[in-house]
Amino acid sequence: DSGGSGFSLAATALPERRRPGGGRPRYEVVRELGAEEVRWFYREDRKTWKPFIGYDSLRIELAFRALGSGGGGGGAGEPAAVEPVCVRSGLYEVDVASAESYPVYWNQTEKIPVMRGQWFIDGTWQPLEEEESNLIEQEHLNRFKGQQLQESFDMEISKPVDGKEAIHSLKLSRNHVDWHSVDEVYLYSDATTSKIARTVTQKLGFSKASSSGTRLHRGYVEEATLEDKPPQTSHIVFVVHGIGQKMDQGRIIKNTAMMRDTARKVEEKYFSNLATHVEFLPVEWRSKLTLDGDTVDSITPDKVRGLRDMLNSSAMDIMYYTSPLYRDELVKGLQQELNRLYSLFCSRNPEFEEKGGKVSIVSHSLGCVITYDIMTGWNPVRLYEQLLQKEEEEELEERWMSYEEQRLLEELYVTKQRLREIEERLHELKASTISKPPVLKFKVENFFCMGSPLAVFLALRGIRPGTSGSQDHILPRTICNRLLNIFHPTDPVAYRLEPLILKHYSNISPVQIHWYNTANPLPYEHMKPSFLNPTKEATSAPDSESASAAPSPTTSPVMVRRHYGESITNIGKASILGAASIGKGLGGMLFSRFGRSSATPQTMETGKDGPEGDEKKATTVGTPPLPHSSSGFLEPTVELEHRIDFELREGLVESRYWSAVTSHTAYWSSLDIALFLLTFMYKQDQEETDKSNLDTL
């Protein structure tokens, strides 16, 4: 309770403190504004002022009062005495002395101005500029302090201001303020045009106040309470950028902000009953790296610089990553930034680890490959050493050579073997005495890849499909609980991961991501696999015998999506065609993606609209294309433990060619993706809560 703010008032339920005119009942006598009546605001990107939530505003106001400014401004304080105030779910801090806010977890050149609101414009509840506000407040207290307020709070309805004379007036630089009563205050612009308009309308019989005055309110529309606070963060998501960040270093911060804002909307709509919260943090690792300095820039011809800048900043990062000289720098850059952010978050939120807080990673583009390599510890040097050893062994066996050369080569081979053994023993001794810290300071719960080329990197490293449907084949569950690969159907950089685990999944369509506004969507784990191209011979089929000639729900091809006029439900029922399969060249890939309309559209029996229809469809879709039996039906075989490939539904009217250009960056503001991410994160949290409740019982 500082400066007579009275937290007992703050604890009162908000709805009772509002009135139809937008204002609120005040104290019975005019006195200085309480801390809960003042509201602090912040402004980003030169847009309108946004109010801080009650919990933040109240704490900023108390810090402001501690600074020694008092209720109405003026008077210098000791800036060093006041700690910065943590706001906006802990992502920002406010320095009250400089009236600025800045992010905690990333660097930002532009500071965010903050402002103390005392007087507000009717209707919009935007604050008056601080200088004017302070002058009006000072004048109001000088003239009316200690006076009774009118008891009826609907006076603007019962006694209109029309025709009332001002009982007090204050001249400001460009405006003036009239008090028609203690609680009826109007602001007028003193610009010449306003004066002319005011004179004309007054002659026509309109009052001065209604013609051009702006009604002002003292104190914000709702009181700030400490109860108006965000839920505690139970899950943090590190957002890792991919290629091209050299071109615009602030882009990952903007992209993460888009993703965070979109997720907030989804949380409010679907998860508002949960007392937990998912926080998104940008991982900006690229700008700290020096790499080649500006060598590549200096060898770029001038005339193509604009286009080349775009190419260099994206394609060059892939070239850097495949270069033995810079790969380590890229890996270390990302690894150190992830660990720095996690340590910083835990130091500011000590209860996060105590309460079993979880960490997921969302990576985009090349960021997926680097994140994967950090988690798995993949090292190209080891692969190269193995290849060299194999070559040496083959050379000893195959090539004709003199006795002396052979003897020396054998001696060299034995010495190298001995050297490796000594190195291994030394390594083991070191490992037993010094426990090596883990590469990452946290366990990854979910690894979401967006627009990811990871599959093609793995294919080129020699990973081939296996016989078990486990994620462990490419990413052990001990390292990361769940791997999910999200892509837009026309993203030219994205590849599928499932066919790298089980080959026949190249002929099974990726799971369709639900639209944000789908009513009662079928849970993802209940969605059955469906054909991508049933007419194509199954890759695992040993014979060429065709399946049943008559189309059945299990064999009829999926509907080609070119009927953009159809209802969302019908289009939603169509499965995906043409996702990039491993091993296709870029030309083939683009051809298969953009040449889809040449396929003959087949009619598909669609169930009734709505979720029941979807369920009906889900039960009629077939199992994966597998070796054929003599009966003509498909026999069941190995399925994936969990689906990994998830595909966004294409827009109803977007052009395929245009979306190929934009789709690689279209993930950040997608409501469908935000809902998808939160569905998986909240589902796990809910399952664990249910399990612990059962254990308690």
UniProtKB/TrEMBL annotation:
Top-level lineage group: Eukaryota
Q: Where is the composition biased (Basic and acidic residues)?
A: 606-618
Domain DDHD: from-to ranges: 440-683
What InterPro entries does this protein map onto?
A: DDHD_dom (IPR004177), PA-PLA1 (IPR058055)
Compositional bias (Low complexity) at which positions?
Answer: 538-557
This protein's GO cellular component annotations are: cytoplasm
Extract the ranges annotated as region (Disordered).
1-22, 529-559, 597-633
Give the SMART domains listed for this entry.
Answer: DDHD (SM01127)
Q: Which GO terms describe its molecular function?
A: metal ion binding; phospholipase activity
Q: Return the similarity comment.
A: Belongs to the PA-PLA1 family.
Q: Indicate what this protein is called per its UniProt record.
A: DDHD1 Phospholipase
Q: Which species does the entry assign this protein to? A: Rhipidura dahli
Q: What is the lineage of its organism?
A: Eukaryota, Metazoa, Chordata, Craniata, Vertebrata
The record's gene field reads Ddhd1
